[in-house]
Amino acid sequence: MSVAFRRESDEEHLEPKFERPIAPGPNLVTPRGLALIGAKVEELEAAVASAAPLDRDAVLRELRYWHTRQTTAEVVPTPPAGVIGIGSRVTYHLAGADRTVEIVGGDEADPAEGRIGFQAPLARALIGAEVGERVDFAGKAEAVEIIGVA
């Protein structure tokens, strides 16, 4: 019989599973972010024992990612009062509206909750600024006015 008609197992046709990519650069986190990473590691360690054989590889892959993030985490010090840094809650005026965001580590970011990673373009524009300053953003000079920093 021709090789073309031979049925092979479904396992041979599955796409290979690659490791979850890790963002380049330092793994800067807030104290809250470090606690969230620790909680995720504990959750996944508990899930490994109860995972079905097919799911076990996926859980172990996630666990490797979070272990790496935990061991490389660098907790950033609190920025000086009034200066924007990682861990700051910033109120700013942009495009006719006032908005508030918190600048956090990459794994802690959740834009829907108002948390943006320090690598985000807006965060990079804001870091180092102080209340009353205007910063360039999205190719526009002085596009963002800083209203408050906490």
TrEMBL record:
<feature type="domain" description="Transcription elongation factor GreA/GreB C-terminal">
    <location>
        <begin position="80"/>
        <end position="148"/>
    </location>
</feature>
<keyword id="KW-0648">Protein biosynthesis</keyword>
<dbReference type="GO" id="GO:0003746">
    <property type="term" value="F:translation elongation factor activity"/>
</dbReference>
<dbReference type="InterPro" id="IPR023459">
    <property type="entry name" value="Tscrpt_elong_fac_GreA/B_fam"/>
</dbReference>
<protein>
    <submittedName>
        <fullName>GreA/GreB family elongation factor</fullName>
    </submittedName>
</protein>
<dbReference type="InterPro" id="IPR036953">
    <property type="entry name" value="GreA/GreB_C_sf"/>
</dbReference>
<dbReference type="Pfam" id="PF01272">
    <property type="entry name" value="GreA_GreB"/>
</dbReference>
<feature type="region of interest" description="Disordered">
    <location>
        <begin position="1"/>
        <end position="25"/>
    </location>
</feature>
<dbReference type="InterPro" id="IPR001437">
    <property type="entry name" value="Tscrpt_elong_fac_GreA/B_C"/>
</dbReference>
<feature type="compositionally biased region" description="Basic and acidic residues">
    <location>
        <begin position="1"/>
        <end position="20"/>
    </location>
</feature>
<keyword id="KW-0251">Elongation factor</keyword>
